[in-house]
Amino acid sequence: MSIKTRLIDYRDGELVCEGMLAWDDEVAGTRPGVLVAHTIRGRSPFEESKAMALAERGYAGFAIDVYGKDAIGADIEACRERMETLRSEREVLQQRLLLALQAMRDQPEVDASRAAAIGYCFGGLCVLDIARTGEPLAGVVSFHGLFDPPGNTEGNRIEARILALHGWDDPLATPDEAVALGQELSGMGADWQLHSYGNVRHAFTNPAADASTGVTVYNESADRRSWAAAQYFLSELFDT
Predict the structure, then answer these.
(1) CA 234, CA 168: separation in Å to the nearest integer?
(2) Distances (CA, A) of 203 to 53, 168, 180, 215
(3) Domains of the chain, start order
(4) pLDDT digits (tens, 9 = 90+) for 172-201
(5) DSSP states along 23-64
(6) What would the pLDDT profile of 57-93 be if each residue is shown by its tens digit?
(7) Exposed, middle or buried, 228 (CB in 10 Å: 0-12/13-18/19+)?
(8) What is the mean pLDDT of residues 27-56?
């Protein structure tokens, strides 16, 4: 196994974004591509590590950037401002996500006909929005994602299979919001699953989560179980 990485620029108009592709260079030919959408903090070593872990399992992992290359490594308040702008302008966010997905499909290591996406926190909302557009990708996985609907996808039919991995006590995605998500996805004809982990809060996959506020709390068992569930889901999508 020889995991390689490459930085890739792609554009949304004048905005230059930068993603990181990871793949096993000892695997011959193309392989499924899995987009990795970032948390509020933008593309970071956390998402890059997930892309590399996917590469170790035979995929090409693409850690994307929706804030713009100039914001990579920015402080939390600058990132929060960009996230909230995109949450209020979901058509803009969806366009940027689809451009990132196309950038991944364009890479020579990727089988463009076999694509999926995973995302964390804000990135969980991002991958759900990719599915809500009706984009024909194999599936998406939301890890402790935000569930608020975009308001511009009513009447669309979801083609992607969906797996939402959710802490039941997440204050940023309440049980009522989880139920509403299920109703929304059913109404859009989706093949969907929701796995909820009891006594688990937001950001449960991130060992660096700041537990002092009681909002973001790492949970080792939910982290392990959710990653295993995601790997089974991806293997089902791609028969790997």
Answers:
(1) 23
(2) 18, 12, 21, 8
(3) 3-238 (3.40.50.1820)
(4) 999 999 999 999 999 999 999 999 999 999
(5) EETTS-S-EEEEEEE--TT-S-HHHHHHHHHHHHTTSEEEE-
(6) 999 999 999 999 999 999 999 999 999 999 999 999 9
(7) exposed
(8) 97
Contacts of 124 (CB under 8 A, 6+ apart): 37, 142, 143, 144, 145, 146, 164
3-state helix, strand, coil in the chain (%, to 5): 40, 25, 35
Residues 6+ apart with CB under 8 A from 221: 197
Residues near 174 by Cβ (< 8 Å), separated by ≥ 6? none
Instruction: Report which residue type is found at 109.
Output: E
Question: What whole-number distance in Å separates Cα of residue 113 and Cα of residue 136?
Answer: 9
Burial zone of 26 (CB within 10 Å; 0-12 exposed, 13-18 middle, 19+ buried): exposed
Place of tokens 């401002």: 81
Indicate the helix (H) or strand (E) that contains 81.
helix 76-88
Q: Is-contact 58 33, C-beta < 8 A? A: no
For the stretch 29-44, what's the b/e string if a residue is b when 16 or more beta carbons lie within 10 angstroms of its beta carbon? Answer: ebbbbbbbbbbbbbbb
Question: What does the block give as tokens for 5?
Answer: 């990485």
Task: Give the SS3 label for residue 240.
Answer: coil
* pLDDT score of 240: 67
* Alpha carbon distances (Å) from 48 to 6, 21, 175: 11, 8, 30
Tally of CB atoms within 10 A around 160: 25
